[in-house]
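[step 3/7] inverse_fold.run input=structure_tokens len=185
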């Protein structure tokens, strides 16, 4: 198959189709940094909201704090967007607020269905399962793709969701993914 060097913008589009926001690698770090202190089994569970992975299902569903595909009905997101002085704002009193990027990430994750297992299309169901791995770009985008080969300073990957093969400059990948590419050789 002919491969072309692509700009990361194109890779991001592929990532958006596969799954733009991954729970474990993109949502958990936000909760850990800004919420676990008061909402995790290992510490304190305020307001009966436990964000520990195994307790997350209790917060997700119709009428719960996270309503899949309905960010506007998801009280968890709404509380995080209230003004600093609102008595319901999370985290409380406007301390350690979520950044606009984090809010957008949370919103996108909910819009995509608030999956706890990762992408909209689980890797296990994909034909390339087994060979597929997660790859992270320097700006934090994650895609699910199978390593094909190293080609100079590029790594050739087949994106699981689309079946398209791309050459991605190694420099555009996170250090971990660069190591993964070199190890795959
Ligand atoms: C400093 C402690 C603290 C932090 C940090 C914190 N919360 Fe809370 N949270 C509380 C307390 C206390 C309550 C209970 C408030 C109440 O019942 O009035 C609560 C309640 C909630 C509720 C339920 C509200 C309701 O009406 O049932 C949600 C949802 C929530 N928090 C989400 C979050 C999220 C998401 C984060 C991180 C972005 C967060 N909280 C960070 C202390 C905290």
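[step 3/7] decode complete -> sequence:
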């Amino acid at each position: 198959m002919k491969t072309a060097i692509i700009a990361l913008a194109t890779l991001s589009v592929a990532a958006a189709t596969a799954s733009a926001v991954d729970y474990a690698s993109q949502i958990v770090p936000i909760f850990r940094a800004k919420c676990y202190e008061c909402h995790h089994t290992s510490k304190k569970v305020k307001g009966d909201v436990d964000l520990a992975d195994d307790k997350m299902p209790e917060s997700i569903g119709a009428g719960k704090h996270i309503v899949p595909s309905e960010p506007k009905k998801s009280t968890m997101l709404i509380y995080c967007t209230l003004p600093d002085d609102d008595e319901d704002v999370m985290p409380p009193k406007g301390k350690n607020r979520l950044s606009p990027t984090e809010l957008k990430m949370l919103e996108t994750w909910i819009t995509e269905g608030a999956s706890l297992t990762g992408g909209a299309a689980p890797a296990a169901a994909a034909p390339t399962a087994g060979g597929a791995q997660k790859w992270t770009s320097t700006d934090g985008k994650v895609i699910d793709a199978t390593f094909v080969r190293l080609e100079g300073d590029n790594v050739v990957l087949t994106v699981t969701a689309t079946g398209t093969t791309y050459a991605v400059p190694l420099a555009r990948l996170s250090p971990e993914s660069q190591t993964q590419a070199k190890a795959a050789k």
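[step 4/7] annotate
Confidence is low (pLDDT under 50) at residues 12-17, 120-129.
The pocket of heme C is lined by residues 34-35, 37-39, 46-47, 49, 65, 75-76, 79-80, 90-92, 98 (CB under 6 Å).
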